[in-house]
Design brief:
Elements (H helix, E strand, L loop, with lengths): L1 E9 L19 E23 L6 E22 H4 L16 E8 L4 E10 L4 E12 L5 E9 L5 H5 L10 E13 L2 E12 L5 E9 L3 E9 L4 E9 L5
Antiparallel strand pairs: 1-2, 2-3, 3-4, 4-5, 5-6, 6-7, 7-8, 8-9, 9-10, 10-11, 11-12
Length: 243
């Protein structure tokens, strides 16, 4: 079992002087503590082997072990320090500092194939408001691939209204997802994803990323497109710093 505690602080800044074309052009302030715990069940397998000494002709029997992760359970929830002290819009939105509690369960069939189910419980609604189920393939040098279904219901809270990275929906949605990450050549890698709303009036979205991966950093670009907008991003990441 591995417990973790994460801390994130993005200060509130006046961004009115910056141009705004979409909601992604605004960075929402955050001051959060994230608690999580991972529990992994691992299989240990013993294999009996033998070897014969060339001089004495004596045979020795010995054991060799291999290990395989069978099930992984992850529990996670975030506490917002900003939300706990929010004094405005209290008439419309009550304070709800606890974010959705997430439970993720992964079954590993072998080193290549796995199945993941993930659910989010919203404290203000006192029910599960989103869950997803996916099949995952890890093919080594051929990349990683995943496809699945996501079910979501609308939640009306301050957090989803103010954070541009949160998709605010007004009806139940069922989405078919596909993700792929694969090497292109040398230090270059690419990733693509597609989200199709097969039930509800959501947006069909697709994205393409191309990254240059160095030992110390990563540099790349991303294109995200739906029925209304096309967004271009440039991304720079420092390895080992979580940036």
């Amino acid at each position: 079992m591995v417990p973790r505690l994460g801390y994130l602080h993005i200060p509130s800044e006046d961004q009115r002087s910056n141009q705004q074309f979409t909601s992604y052009d605004r960075i929402a302030p955050k001051h959060e503590l994230t608690y999580s715990i991972d529990n992994v069940l691992t299989r240990k397998r013993e294999k009996k082997l033998s070897r014969t000494d060339a001089k004495t002709k004596e045979t020795e029997v010995y054991s060799q072990y291999d290990y395989h992760d069978v099930v992984r359970l992850r529990l996670e929830q975030t506490y917002s320090l900003y939300e706990a002290r929010r004094g405005h819009d209290r008439e419309t939105y009550s304070r709800e500092p606890w974010r959705d509690a997430m439970a993720e369960l992964t079954f590993y069939w072998d080193e290549t194939l796995s199945f993941t189910t993930r659910s989010y419980w919203t404290p203000s609604e006192d029910e599960i408001t989103s869950h997803s189920h996916s099949v995952n393939l890890e093919l080594g040098e051929w990349g990683k691939y995943s496809t699945g279904l996501t079910y979501r219901k609308p939640v009306h809270d301050y957090y989803r209204q103010q954070d541009p990275t949160q998709t605010n929906i007004t009806e139940r949605l069922t989405t078919l997802n596909f993700d792929a990450d694969f090497p292109v050549w040398g230090p270059l890698s690419a990733s693509v994803y597609f989200d199709w709303d097969i039930k509800g009036q959501g947006k069909n979205e697709k994205g393409l990323s191309l990254m240059y991966n160095h030992q110390c950093f990563s540099l790349g670009g991303q294109i995200i497109r739906d029925e209304d907008d096309t967004v271009f991003r440039v991304q720079f990441s420092l390895s080992g710093l979580g940036l």
